[in-house]
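go over this:
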Amino acid sequence: MNDRLLGIIALVLAAFMTWAGWDIEAPFAYEPVGPRAFPLLIALVIGLCGLRLAIKGGNPVHPNPPGANGRIVLMLLFAAAYAFLFEWLGFVIATAIMTVAVGRLFGGSWIKTAIGGLVMGLLFFLLFDKVLDVVLPGGVLEGLI
């Protein structure tokens, strides 16, 4: 696989995201841009990067170092678990668990990843839920936060 092939795959992904995100509408208007803007913006960024790779690419891609493929698979599993636990556990706990899991995957110590996960979960919750008024699930901490 080379950069051009990756660029073409990215362009196909961007086209699919645009197609899938085009019909997203909220049942009521609660934001000026609506929920469609985020997937379309991400599709635009992926498409531009894919176009750059497809036009200017051609460099060979080196194989991953030993153990990297296993970490990539674990990251996908962690992301899926985060998506499933997000509503039930709530943003703060799910984010803290995800941060610890990813931090440990990349060699962080238990104490540093735990502190980082708790701080990140709480600060991002306060930023999005309280400051930016983006409703996030409280989960098991619903009455406390």
